[in-house]
Amino acid sequence: MSGAIDLHAHTSVSDGTETPTELVAAGVSAGLGVLAITDHDSTSGWDEAFRAAVGTGLTIMPGIELSTQLDYASIHVLGYLIDPANADLVAATARIREERLHRAEAMVARISADYSLTWDDVVAQTTPGATVGRPHIADALVARGHVPDRSAAFASILHWRGGYYRPHEAPPPVEGVRLITAAGGVAVIAHPGARGPQRVLSDARMRSLVDAGLAGLEIDHRDNPPSSRPHWEELARRFGLIRTGSSDYHGTGKPNRLGENTTSPEAYAEIIARGTGSRPVG
Ligand code: AMP
Ligand code: FE
Ligand code: FE
Ligand code: ZN
């Protein structure tokens, strides 16, 4: 196998701007060897990505980025090689997507008191069945001319201190890790150095996550400030966790570029050895 390994990317099944087919084409153009499709709370892009990858030389790693919550902090748990038909996981993700929908509606109701914005504007920015998030509200605000792009929306109206923010209900991370592990998957905490996880994931809580089956930490990611990394490297050593690195590509929706952070072939092999719910394709 040649080419870099990038284990975190989104499509229009959640808040990426490209379809699974377009994501695969972007991965091929970037010269990647392996690309994971990890939409928020959904696996519905997998089959299209698998079909698009046939004959391209790009291997698709099936994954998900599960939304969890602890002390009002949003903790994202990546799940690789899960069984997409696992009943508990299917039920949990359906519930999370539903909660996200209610929360987005509540945020739009608040925003519409001060800005021209309707729920239909947001629906117009999502593909049917997509996991709805703030990025779709951002796109609707852009379409209305209130902000120039997603990043500007996140820095102002959609910021957690912007006055319109609402959290959404989600299971605690220990439950997310259990769900992924019980579905044959390999659980990795996404961007642990980001504000939320950095604030709430004490060493004792990390121990509980490891006991629940946590396999790895996404240490090489642009949202982990350099100053945060030695701490997570030390925890990875202490608990024997796999170190991953990824772009968290969202198409044109975020500045993150494919392959800007990558995972070692050894770490990738460890994930392959541990996962039993599905297999990479291509
Ligand atoms: P939500 O989960 O609905 O609260 O929205 C958070 C999601 O928005 C994250 O998963 C990111 O993909 C995306 N996001 C966060 N910050 C930005 C930004 N500055 N520009 C574009 N997308 C962002
Ligand atoms: Fe996202
Ligand atoms: Fe994330
Ligand atoms: Zn992500």
Description of the molecule:
It is a single chain. With 282 residues, the chain is α/β, with parallel strands linked by helices. The chain is 39% helix and 15% strand. It has eleven helices and seven strands. It has helices at residues 20-29, 46-53, 87-111, 119-123, 134-143, 150-155, 173-182, 195-200, 203-211, 229-239, 265-274, and strands at 4-6, 32-37, 59-70, 73-80, 186-189, 216-220, 242-245. The protein has a seven-stranded mixed β-sheet with strand order 1-2-3-4-5-6-7, with helices on both faces. Strand 6, helix 10 and strand 7 form a beta-alpha-beta unit. The longest helix is centred in the middle third of the chain and has 25 residues, at 87-111. The chain binds adenosine monophosphate, fe (iii) ion (2 copies) and zinc ion (ZN).
Helix fraction by DSSP (H/I, runs of at least 4): 25-40%
Percentage of β-strand residues: 5-15%
Which class best fits the helix and strand makeup?
alpha/beta
Described by the principal axes of the CA atoms, the overall outline is globular
Low-confidence stretches: none
Given the structure, what is the number of helices? 11
Oligomer: single chain
Which molecules are bound in this entry? adenosine monophosphate, fe (iii) ion, zinc ion
Overall pLDDT confidence: 98
Strand order across the largest sheet = 1-2-3-4-5-6-7
The profile of the biggest β sheet is:
7 strands, mixed
Based on CA atoms alone, the radius of gyration comes out at 18 Å
Euclidean distance between termini CA atoms:
11 Å
Order of helices and strands, N to C?
EHEHEEHHHHHEHHEHEH
- DSSP E strands, number: 7
